[in-house]
Design brief:
Helices cover 26% and strands 20% of the residues. It has 2 domains: 34 residues, no CATH class; 169 residues, Putative cyclase (Glucose Oxidase, domain 1, 3-Layer(bba) Sandwich), CATH 3.50.30. A 9-stranded mixed beta sheet has the order 1-13-11-5-7-9-10-4-12. Strands 2-3 form a two-stranded antiparallel sheet. Strands 6-8 form a two-stranded parallel sheet. The longest helix is centred in the first third of the chain and has 20 residues. The chain contains 7 helices and 13 strands. By secondary structure, it is of the alpha/beta class.
Length: 270
Amino acid sequence: MGLDLDRIRVFLTAEDELARLRAEYSAGPPPEMKFAVLKSPSVKIVDLSRELYHRTPSYPGHPPVIHGVWKTHEESFAESGNVHGLASMFISMPDHAGTHIDAPRHFGESGQPINEYPLEKCIVPGICIDLRHIAPRAEIAPADLEAAVKQAGVPVPKGGTVLLCTGHHQRTFPRKEYATDNSGVDVAATEWLARQGVVHFGIDSMRPGPEGKVNSLVHKACLELDITHIESLCNLEALLGKGQFTFIGLPMKWRDGTASPIRAVAVFDM
């Protein structure tokens, strides 16, 4: 087999070319260059998602999460004629399972289903505020939000999200109180968040409002205000006092879905 001299020349000059590019763009790439300069060494990702597993706590009255073995390595190995075994599992769950984002369709028939929800609203700037002093089952009022934002020392980002750290997940998960004892926003607080220009807000419990009538009215208000919310977040304590981050929570493309599980993360120095 003959040598590819052209390819060898490319390899030999690659390091020189990289050095030239570093020198030429040391002050940054020119505006016409449409690529992102990644700062991977300094990027920090904080996972805000609940783990999904068989019979993980689900919303009262919703079907359970069922997760089991469909085929083992041994079974697949035998079916392949002893070539190689590939294990697989199956899952059955409501679209509101685990950490998830509610689609506007959940709030009313006129709302967007999750497969039409704009992905631009799923990667947004965010802040996290400390509401752990609010008592279980209590309503979070606008004044509570205003004080928590002031304490955080960072403004609510327009077109972004606000994550409400109530401490509920850390205090109660996975005990039965997780499904009932959360604090949550009232309608006035939901309206306050919408006036700040958020596209959604998130909370570390199964519902945005306290259990009962207030929670239903908060969902109704979200439809009227054209915002939504993310439920069953966790690990929000890790974000407190850290300033603004990029929130990422991409839903699955369920046709006509009323919600979708997401892998929610906060990214710093992105």
